[in-house]
Structures are given as C-alpha cells and as structure tokens.
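Appendix B, Record 12. Input sequence as logged:
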Amino acid sequence: MRRVRGRSAFAIEGRGEDERDARRLRFLRGLFPRGDARDRQSVANRVRMAIDALPLLLLADLIVAAALWLLCRPASAAAPWLIAIPLLSILAGGGVLRWVARRGKGAAVPERMHGFVALFGLVQGLGWSAWLLVCAASLQPSHWALAGVAHGGLLVVTTLVFAPVPTAALALWLCLAIAASVALGQWAALALLLPLLAVAVVMLGGISERNYVASRRWLASAAVALKASLLLGEFEESGRGWFWETDDRGLITYISPQIAAALGLAADRLLGTPMTGLVLHEACDADGSGAGERTLGFHLATRLAFSEIAVRAAGGDDVRWWSLSGRPAFDEYGNFLGFRGSGTDLTEMRRSEAEVKRLASYDSLTGLPNRILMRRTLDESLRDIAGRPKRAALFMLDLDRFKMVNDTLGHPVGDALLRQVAARLQRVVQQDGQVGRLGGDEFNVVLPGIVEQTRLATLASAIIQEVSKPYLIDGAHVSIGASIGIAIAPGDGATADALVRNADLALYAAKADGKGVHRFYEPEMHASAKDRRLLEMDLRGVMSESGLHLVYQPVVDARSEAIVCFEALVRWDHPTRGAVSPADFIPVAEEIGLIPQIGEWVLRTACLEAANWPDPVRVAVNISPIQFANPALPGIVLSALAAAQLPPHRLELEITEGVFLNDDAATDAMFARLKAIGVRFALDDFGTGYSSLGYLKKAPFNKIKIDQSFVRGAAVPGNRNAAIIRAIVALAESLDMETTAEGAETADELALIRSLGCSHIQGYIFGRPMLSDEARARVAGSGKLAMPGLLVTRDPRVAVLRSATIRSRHGGETARIRNLSRTGAMIECGTIFRPGEAVTIDLGDGRPIESTIRWANEERFGVAFDEPIEPEQLAPQRLVRSAGVGG
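Logged structural output:
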C-alpha cells in the first residue's frame, strides 16, 4: 500500500475529501448523497434497512389509525373517511415502494431509491398532517391526550424506521410539526419549532455524512482485508508457504491446513498443541544437534522475534524441513498475546542440496564414490584423529580391453559394462574396503588396516577372476580383464599422493607383465615408469622420423616346405635404445592412439613389398579390431592394392577374435565389403580369445592360425596341446579352411604338426622374421627353405623380468627372474648359492615354489622346481598383435 509520511493512502484520501467538503455544506451530502462509486454501497444498505422495516411502520400506521377511529367515531360520521383516506394513501405508497424494491426497479441507482424513501416519508407526513388539520376541531378535549400519545408513538416508530434515511424522517417531522402548530393555533410554537427543525436538519445531515465517511473507510479497509485474505489464501494453497499463530502459552491457535495435511493430521487436532511439538527434539534431530527445536523453543520462551530458522518436521511419513519466521504480538496495553509467523517448505531445497553433494562425491554412472571422496577416504585411512599414521593398502585397478569394447560396441554398452564391473567389485570386496571409480575404466580400492601381502594377493586374484568372467550386454557376450597395482602404507608411502603414485607404478608393471595380473609396488618401478614415459614421447614422433620398418616371417607349405606367404611384422630401431621389442612399444601405441596410423602404414608398405615377389607368394597383414571397425577400411585396402599394383588374392588380412565383440550387421557388412574386393581372411590366435565358434558359421575365413601357445610343448609327453591342435585341424577341414601352426621350433614339433594334418607352418624352424631384401632373395629361387639342424625339444621358456624373494638358509634375498619354464628358471641375485642347495621362491602371490639350485655362475644361477608349474599363471604371455603389427 502506498504510504505518505507515515500515513496510509486511505487516511490521506479521506482527509483531502473532508477538506473539500468543509468548504461546502457537508450536511447536505448526508441528506442528499451524490451516489458516487464509493458511497453507493452505503446508500444501498441504508435504503435496504428502511425498506426492510417498512412493514413494521405500516403496522404502526394501522394501529394508530384504528385508535384514532375509535376516538373520533362518536364525534363525527365523516371521521372514519378522514382517517381511511390518509391511511390508504400511506399504505399504497408503502406498497409501491416495496414493489419497486422487490422488482429491482431503481435499485441499480441507490440514490434514486433513497429519494423514493424520502418521498414516502413526505407522503406519510402529509397524510397524518391532513388528518390533524381536518379532525382536530372535532376532537373532544379529553381525547387530545390519547391522540397525542398515538401520534407520539407513531413519530418514534417512524423515526426509528427512517433513521437510515434522515430526509424521510425530517419530511415527516416537518409536516407534522407545522400541522400540529396550525391545528392548535400555536403560531409562537411554530416560530420556535422551525429553528429547532433547522438545527435538527443540520445535525442529522452531519451525522449521516460522517456515517458515510466511516462506511466508506470501512468498506475500503474491508476490501483491502479481503484482497489480503485472498492473496494469503492463494499463497497457502500454492504450497510456497504457510502461516501459524500461538497464544501466550505457545499453544497453536491457527495453522494452515496444508501443513497439517503434510503431517498427516487434521488442522483441528493441532490446535491447542505446543508449537515446539511440530519439530524434532534434540535427541531426534537428523544431525544430532537439535539446533532447530532448541532455537525455536528459546525464541518462543523469551518472546524474541526470529527469522528463517531451519527445523525438521516431527511427523509425517517423509522427512521434511521447514524454515520458520515469527514475531510476538501485543495488545494496546502491552500484554503479550502470542506469536504470529509464517513458514516455508525447505524439503525440496534440502533434497537438491543433498543430491548436489551426492553428485559431487559419487560417480553418476556406477554410484561408486568418485575420485574426490576416495581421496578423502584414503586420507582418513592413513591418519587417525590425532594425526598419527595408520596402516592401509591401496589397489589401483584398470580394465584390460575395455577401450576395444567402447570402440567396437559403442559407449552405451561400455557404460553398462562399467556398471556391472562396479557391482562385481563391491561383491568381492564387501566390508573389507571401499571401492571407487576414478574415471573411465579406472577403479581403486582403499583397504584400511589390511597390509598382509598374502591376504592382499588373495583379494586381488579374486577381483581379477571375478572381473574377467564373461558379461552379457544387449545380447552380446563381452570379455575383459583387469590389472591391479598394490601399494601398502606406510612402507610404500605415508601420504595419499605417494601411495597413489606408487600404486600406479605397480599397475603399470602389472600391465607390462601381460595384463590380467596384480603386482606389488617395488622401488625399482620408478625407473621403469620413467623409461616408459620416455618411450611414449619417442613413439609419438616415430612416424614422422621413419623409425619403423617391416620384417617378414615365412609361412611354408607343410608338405612341400615351399614359401607360400610372408607375415609382415613391424619393428622399431630406436636411435639410442637400439631395437625396441614390439612387446614394449605396441601396448604404448595402443594407449596413445597410434595403432590406426601405424596399421595403415604397415598395410601400404607390405603391399608395395609384396609386389616384388613371385605371383603365388602372398603377404599377410594383421588388422586390429579398431581398424576393422573403421568404415574407411575397404577404401584404405583398395588404395594400398592400387598403389602397389598387387592382385587382391595375394593380400591376406589376419584378424583376431576381438573384431567379433560387436557381432552385428556392421561386422557382417565389413566382411562382405572386404570379401568383394577379393582379399583373403585368416583367423589369428585362434582359441586364445573369446573362444566362440558361432562366428565361424558366417565369417568368410580362408585360414585358421593355431596360436604358438598350443604348438610349443605339444611334443612333450603328457602335454594335451596335441589334442587341441588335432581338434582345431578337424574343425578347419570340416569348414574347408586351411590351418597354420605358429611357433614351430624343433624337429619333433614339426613332425607332430605334420602328423596332425596342419596345412601350413610358421616358426623359427623355417626362419626368423627377415628384412625385405632377404625375403626377396628367399623367394627368388626355388622358394623352398633349408631346414636348420635338428633341435632338442625342451619345455618352452618365457622371457620375463620380475622381482621375487629367495628364501634359504641365508635368509630372504631380493632377486630377479630372467626366464621361466614349467620345470625351472634362471635368476639373478647378489647372494652366491651352491648347486644342490634348497631354496624357496616367493613371487608375492601367496604360492611359494620349492626349488633346488642346479648351477650357479657368480650372480646368476639356475633352479629346478620340485614340482612342475604352469608359467602362464606367473607370467602371462603378452598379446603384441593387437594392431596387426606385432610379431
């Protein structure tokens, strides 16, 4: 509301109008209202009051008329008619007035009805005045007293009825006063009566005018109050806020129905209950502080105003939060009446704040704690409240082959896979620690108080085993793996940063050892990590510096031993490192996204070189799943063949089972487009991947390559690899496909492969990978390779580089394992051992290996295991052909 100098707009308007009316005759406005918009309601109300009382006035007229008729009947025969005529006139006028009011004619203009009522008062005054003037002379002196009483009572009733319309009463009084004075012959009384009537006119007009002003102000206040009430009602119904009121004892006297409904109660049940009973007490507060109830009770008890106190509701099915404001109320004498206030619902805001906090601390995809919360958890696990160090372990976990899933199956499948991985991790770890997601396919596990290596190794193995189980997502079978790096506090780092860094180094070591394993942190890993970073930097510039070159390993016919194909393999001669093994740089190239670029270069270079060979000799090039998923691959193949002028049937694309991760229409379409070009297909590393035979029904393979892990050791008595090879050969023959056995090195392996029916052989027994010039020379002659001298079959050895602890009578010594087989290993150690001495090899995985020293040469010695082991379990073979460029 507009206010001027502390006074309301209504007061200003009223005062201005009073000043204007003061310059005119204000009482005339009270007698003859102007009927403007502000006064019409008051005028209409007055008229209605007079008309509603009109039947009583007419009844009084009948009673007075009857009394006068009884007085005048003996005196004059004409007296009844002199009474009946005015009475009939009065009754007719009253009837007409009631009819007009009932029909609404003239009611639309209240001042017009006001005039009709005044006119009726004049009619009544004239009627009774006529009777006085005509019949006064015939009345006996003894009857004058009764007539005066009758007229006096009539005047009282008439005045009461016409009080809302003062002009009607004044008209009646004026007529009767003049008639009485004339009838009695008292002219002096008339002279005295007229000034009194004038004073009465002024007084009644003034009173009426003030009533109009008061009514106008009351109507204005009522309109404002009604508007405020409507606004407050709409505000309550909208749910944006509510109102409450208490008495001087703090008991509720009013509360909005909406808030009562939210509490599941009726509003009348809350009346008379303490206001503090609506909020939780201290012991029940959500955070245990009880601040809301205690603060509200304090303000109510001390009668202090308060604003926006956050409290929690003490009832209802759901948790609700309110913001309360209130101030004390006093009467004009300063007596405390109670509190009045308002409230708003903070529930949604609190829920939104809680959701924001949750999103800030938890991963939205998996629901696991995110990097921020896991860092806080790690900090708390390393230090107690007093800041003293605590013991804890940290797992850093990375998913193997997850990028391939994302690239081939798409991100929605990758997201679903991450959710399933998170569920499996929580199922394995349970209450031992906290699992979190750092981002992408990286997870970590904080294990407070668990530092025993045996227990940690068992848990890490269980995680790897569970995560490596196949997944079924949208009808597709997906297989991945996991690698884990482990750091233990405080030995591997007393701070969170140090522990995370060292666990990362252990994770890199696990991935370097073939993935799918766990590794504990060792101080030597810092040097390996630094070397890996330098290797990554050098590899980024290798394409521009032409540091890569190809070598070619022959594939011969098993019967004629003639060269039928060369497999193109990439090699890197580093200017300072020398020859870098593909096992070292291919995984790095995968991580930094160089595989597509390197793969295309290998394809084009191999086709150009194959154009120099005789027509029957083919070239085999490995194609990674990432390349295969590229829609531009057929165009790249056509371009490479056209540039080299090489017939399509002389190009053989070797594809691993990884391309079938996304076994859908796009995969079938890619096979169809490439087959239409005329190239051949070979299924590489068969049996080592997802081992699904379903794709052999529709994929147009010309050849199956038996992985070298099945060939090596196949001739050793008791080895079951020969049975596996026989089964693969039978499967290939039934599907009209060729077979190539990889990794043949010895004569007895060669003889076994031939006896099992393999059509082609690839291995060191017929030649190692060679440069292009040597390959040209080999196929320029007969194309047949001379077999090297016979070799003795022994258990295959795997070159490894990993730490171990050698326990003997000397104690425990740190050592490095250089190579490993089923029956023994070569080890480097600073302690000198003697042949025949018994030692125990501890690899940190909870499976000690009992061994005996067979030979010793300064810091190197060889051991024979008391019981054969499977080396793949300790040093899994790394897959170095993932981009089609390994070897």
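Confidence is low (pLDDT under 50) at residues 1-23, 282-291, 786-793, 875-887.
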